[in-house]
Design a protein that fits this description.
It is built from 4 helices and 10 strands; from the N terminus they run αβββββαβββαβαβ. It is α+β, with helices and mostly antiparallel strands. The protein has a 6-stranded mixed beta sheet with strand order 8-7-6-3-4-9. A hairpin with a 2-residue loop joins strand 7 and strand 8.
Length: about 200
């Protein structure tokens, strides 16, 4: 009976050890899988996180909207929605400004493009003056791997693709395209190099 009891206890101990080992092996595998997913997501977002936008104050009191690509790969299919707020020289200005929508095909690596009121004249019409303040609100773009992204001035970066029809529905405007508008084409072609970029 003692031998049987010892055998049963050893078998039970072996089963317990196997169960605990299997549980921890599964936990390690799940952790490795989660880490791999996080690494893939980080790698996928790396270039998109290097695309940014901001406004720069001009000497005349206006401002320019800037789109930058700090990566070593170009971005494409760029759509920019923003608002032009009138300067003090505009009689009877709209208090909420005027929405603009521009599209350009590519932004080179390690470069930025400044959207000034004179470049946006096709979108703004005669509602602009040199002291207009340009605010970029949303930028959609495609990264070098073909993924589409949306960067919003008030929300986190997200994967998102937008069509021209959706842009028109959102803004009520036709897109001004750098293949059509010579001012925008010249500005995009003269994109300024950035001093610091990330590989």
């Amino acid at each position: 009976m003692t031998a049987t009891l010892v055998t049963v206890l050893v078998a039970a101990g072996g089963l317990l050890f196997t169960g605990v080992s299997t549980y921890y092996a599964t936990e390690v595998a799940v952790d490795q899988l989660n880490q791999s997913r996080e690494d893939d997501e980080t790698k996928e977002r790396k270039q998109a996180e290097l695309v940014s936008m901001w406004s720069e104050r001009l000497a005349n009191g206006g401002s320019t909207g800037v789109i930058s690509n700090r990566s070593w790969d170009p971005i494409g299919e760029i759509a920019v929605v923003g608002r032009a707020l009138p300067g003090p020289s505009v009689p009877k200005p709209r208090p909420d400004g005027r929405v603009f929508l521009v599209v350009f095909q590519t932004l080179p690596p390690c470069a930025k493009v400044a959207l000034t009121p004179d470049v946006l004249v096709a979108s703004l019409g005669d509602a602009w003056t040199a002291d207009t303040r340009i605010e970029v609100e949303t930028v959609w773009f495609r990264d070098s791997s073909g993924a589409s992204w949306k960067r919003d001035s008030t929300k986190p970066l997200v994967r998102s693709k937008v069509t021209r029809e959706e842009l028109k529905a959102q803004t009520g405007m036709e897109a001004t395209d750098n293949t059509v508008d010579p001012r925008l084409r010249a500005r995009v072609a003269a994109a300024e190099p950035l001093q610091e970029c990330v590989k």
